[in-house]
Amino acid sequence: MGEQADPTRAADVADAMRELARERFLPAQQRARAAEDHPLPLWHGQTSSQPSTVSFMLRLLQVPVGARVLDVGSGSGWTTALLARLVGPGGVVLGLELDPELAVWGAANLDACGLPWARIDRATPGALGRPVDGGWDRILVSAAPRRMPAALVDQLGEDARMVIPVRSTMHLVERREGRTEITTHGSFVFVPLR
């Protein structure tokens, strides 16, 4: 456990990021800056994460074709679309966004990509994630809680992975054979998880 992504999946992530350019998921006034490798503002204090961080998280998540994936803090819809591209039409991706205006805008951005096996819903205030029978195969969290949220760990299925920044440290949570292992993978800056 705790291994880095294999080269095949890294190539899949790179292909997805080329196909689903960040520019498509930014407000008009930010689109010219889409190639800059740093966070860009959306609104209400939310940001579009820098491409190198998104790539790192997706490679660490090791998303298999056909997986059921939860995207917590889906924002502009970019990560939800990338996850949908990785799982393919046999998978399912649910993006959750707490900010109602951002959730509507992100859903429209996602709809424009023609990936009907993915959707973005408004997150339920006061609740983390959305449990499903059998648990999620992968969970991506793009906002930082102050401590590891047990509510999200509990939503992982068997042979599942979650990538989540806790405070300023990236964590990989792996669930296998009824055991949960957590490893850390560098420092990053994210907006707080609300």
UniProtKB/TrEMBL annotation:
<keyword id="KW-0963">Cytoplasm</keyword>
<protein>
    <recommendedName>
        <fullName>Protein-L-isoaspartate O-methyltransferase</fullName>
        <ecNumber>2.1.1.77</ecNumber>
    </recommendedName>
</protein>
<dbReference type="Pfam" id="PF01135">
    <property type="entry name" value="PCMT"/>
</dbReference>
<keyword id="KW-0808">Transferase</keyword>
<dbReference type="GO" id="GO:0005737">
    <property type="term" value="C:cytoplasm"/>
</dbReference>
<dbReference type="GO" id="GO:0004719">
    <property type="term" value="F:protein-L-isoaspartate (D-aspartate) O-methyltransferase activity"/>
</dbReference>
<dbReference type="InterPro" id="IPR029063">
    <property type="entry name" value="SAM-dependent_MTases_sf"/>
</dbReference>
<keyword id="KW-0489">Methyltransferase</keyword>
<dbReference type="InterPro" id="IPR000682">
    <property type="entry name" value="PCMT"/>
</dbReference>
<dbReference type="GO" id="GO:0032259">
    <property type="term" value="P:methylation"/>
</dbReference>
<keyword id="KW-0949">S-adenosyl-L-methionine</keyword>
<comment type="similarity">
    <text>Belongs to the methyltransferase superfamily. L-isoaspartyl/D-aspartyl protein methyltransferase family.</text>
</comment>
